[in-house]
Input
Amino acid sequence: MRNLPSYEELLSGLSWSLAERELGYQPGEPLNIGWMCSDRICRLGQADKLALIWEDYLGNEKRFTFDDLRVLSNTIASFLVELGIQPGERVCLFLDRVPELYIGFVGILKTGAVAQPLFSAFGDESLFVRLADAKTSAIITQKKHLHKVRKIREELPELRHIIVVDAGDSPLQAREVAFRMEQAPRVENFAVYPTTAESPSVLHYTSGTTGQPKGAQHVHYSIVSQYLTAKIVLDLRPDDTYWCNADPGWVTGTSYGIVGPWSNGITQVVLDSGFNAERWYEFLAKRRVTVWYSAPTAIRLLMKEGTDLPRKHDLSSLRYLASVGEPLNGEAVIWSEEAFGKPFHDTFWQTETGSIVITNFPGMPIKPGSMGKPFPGITATVLNPRTYEPVSQPGVAGLIALRPGWPSQFRYYWRNEAGFQAKFKNGWYLCGDRASLDADGYFWFMGRDDDVINTGGHLVGPFEIESALLEHPAVYESAAVAKPDPVNMEVVKAYVTLKRGYEPSPDLELEIMNRIRKRLSPLAMPQEIEFVDSLPKTRSGKIVRRILRCKEFHEPVGDLSTVMNE
Ligand code: 6R9
Output
């Protein structure tokens, strides 16, 4: 076992310029994430090393070396260029976790276009809102998701190309074009577009309390943070087999499911299949996974199955475990010690931060339940919510805040300057979360500072759900809030008032739920609908979700002076 540096040693030894040097990047020169993750690794003599081992739910397997990644991403890139895709245009990836998703991401970036990954589980409404907002030019998808695109494309005049990766003999319609990545003529050489540090790279949509989801725009320079944090925090080493079980529709699945590992030349494995404890343990054992990046909800699901199941599988290859997305409760850390002989290391970050900002490092003593300390190069603190000054005492709750300026910080919200400005106060970027700091400088997460619902690590905005609820003919008003849940931490609960002539009934409840599931996504679907006569509102008529949320969590509501009808 090698000696791991202490936190203090890390602090003094690490810098973003070190990452620039290791990546061979000179400030001012072209910088392209797609090239960095493929061509550069080949040039380092790793062309034949495996970049991706992919497996689907049936156990079918595909393997791609870094040279395959280089050539196939070239192939996709030149296909896009032939279609007329210009640098800066948004190209959406709307795919299950198939190889085209990972390799397509790299290919899009090579053309200088912006990759816009979206969950393939999204229904037509969720898809529409994000494509319309981004004025997306092309979408890469599968046959099975085509009906959702067809349903909305007439309202998306900017969407010029619908690229289907598995069209086969299926008849295609206007604007649709077939592309088979592995059957297309391989493109050995592609002139990678000379993007620079500040050129836009990835557009990730994330939910807030008000309005529709916001597009957090990242730039090619983000690779500097993603490379270094993947190497240091996830402790990636050349011989590792790495598994990040996040979907690239979520920022974790791109920053640490594509860019982090591949810019480090690491072999990664992907399982294109939903959660199943037995299957996951089998996969870990069969693939001899060494580093695993997961999420608390998945860990809680595994915990439900007990420690006998992991003991039936040879999990001795596992060396390092990390988690992101929600608070990792102390219990889960202790359980993982029991089940795997190793703790999960909590990492905290956001779509907007682009990379891990507060975390537990290998070699650092873990305090179960704490998120750890800032990554070297990140200045993080807890602010007094009234003065926006750092709180001086340990244990006092406040707002998690970061000093702007780290490489992978989002540069703006797409076409939403006001929303962007609102994230900064007194020279700090506000994460929208609350925490306290202890005397040793460890952060302890307390909760979000807004009405966003974190269900199984996925942020769902109340506005999106309420908008969809209001489209139902029976719904007069609605409020979507979080409700506690033993596995997903939170699930969506909707409070609904009905229009005259409609009566609450279990059938109506089911019908509304299903509608949300289909139009938005299974995650956004309310697990419960409570029909009420009225909703709590401020004097200016705004629905006060806080009151409903507190009811669900059995918490005191606090100051009600601005609320009218409670
Ligand atoms: C990467 C990602 C960000 C929000 C964040 C916070 C919650 C993430 C957490 C955590 C407690 C952790 N969150 N990591 N809460 N402990 N280790 O999750 O991005 O989807 O934008 O969510 O998730 O509330 O502000 P994103």
Observations:
- The mean pLDDT is 94.
- The longest strand covers residues 475-485.
- Residues 26-44+66-220+246-263 form a domain with the Rossmann fold fold (CATH 3.40.50.12780).
- The CA atoms of residues 281 and 504 lie 44 Å apart.
